[in-house]
Structure formats: C-alpha cells, structure tokens
Amino acid sequence: MSRFDLIFLILDKPNEKNDLELGRHVCGVHANGQQRSLNFEPFKEDFIRAFVSRAKQYSPIIPGHLHNYIVENYVEKRKLQISDSQDSMYITPRTLLGIIRTAQAHAKCRFSNVVEQEDIDEAIRLVDACRESFNDSIEKEKKNIFGND
C-alpha cells in the first residue's frame, strides 16, 4: 500500500435514511431509464479536460524556506507514530515523498509554479485523512470482533 500517495478506505455504513434514498434512486433509474435531476450543475467534460491540460503546464518547485517546514512535519508525525501503538498506518520516507508530490499537485491546481505553505498543509491534511479512514475502520472491526461497544 505504500506505493500510493493517498488511499482512502470508503465504508458503506448502514444508514436507514440514506439506504432508503439510494434504494429509491436506483429503482427509479432502473424503471425510467434516466437519473433524477441533480441539485447542482456538474462540470462539463470540455471544462475538465481544459483544466487538466492547463494544470499540466505547471511544474511547481518548493522554495527552500519550506523544506524545513516539510521535514519538521514529517519528523513530528514519526514521533507521534512511536507514541501511538494503535496506529496501523506507518509514516515512511515514501509518505514524505507523497506529501511533496501532493503539495505540488495542489499548486498545479492553483496554476502555480511555486508551492506555498497552504499546499503543504493541504497535502498533510489529506495524508492524515487517509490514515484516519483506515484507523476508524480498524477500530470498528476490533469492536465487532471483541464485542466492545
């Protein structure tokens, strides 16, 4: 799993209201051959293609003053990993590279050739969210197995 920068575990948790709405939607689409109208206007394919094409034109660099910021965050996460024996996801040098690549991708989405601290913060937030998605599911599984509520 360490080959990927971001992996989210998506659980299909039972929820009566959501299950009822989804069931009605699927049956409605099946019966009518078309989906219901949306509460928003999705982006058109041409817009998405143009956006991605423009974003690919950028090659963001990380300014020297932000290198220490990234390293400090990485080291802090490694320290937390040692103290949190419940954590099932390891912070590795590959995670550090993932933070860098994700920060650069975020800068590309802003059409910038320079990574800002906000890009790094968002990359770290996404890595943390990935880890939480796994930790939450593991805790739930432990409760199911051992009967701890």
CATH architectural group of one domain: Orthogonal Bundle
- The helix/strand series, from N terminus to C terminus, equals HHHHH
CATH fold category name of one domain:
Helicase, Ruva Protein, domain 3
By secondary-structure content and strand pairing, the structural class works out as: mainly alpha
Biggest β-sheet, characterized? none
- Rounded to the nearest angstrom, the distance between the terminal CA atoms is 29 Å
Indicate the multimeric state.
single chain
Cα gyration radius (Å) = 20 Å
- Top CATH class of one domain: Mainly Alpha
Low-confidence stretches: none
- Total count of helical runs of at least 4 residues: 5
The helical percent reads 55-70%
Topology, number of strands: 0
Strand percent estimate: under 5%
Structure characterization notes:
The chain is mainly α and 149 residues long. It has a domain of 89 residues: Helicase, Ruva Protein, domain 3 (Orthogonal Bundle). 64% of the residues lie in helices and 0% in strands. It has five helices and no strands. It starts with 15 loop residues before the first helix and ends with a helix. The model has no long low-confidence stretch (mean pLDDT 86).
Break the fold down into its secondary structure elements and pairings.
Blueprint lengths: L15 H17 L12 H11 L8 H20 L9 H17 L7 H30 L3
Helix pairs in contact: 4-5
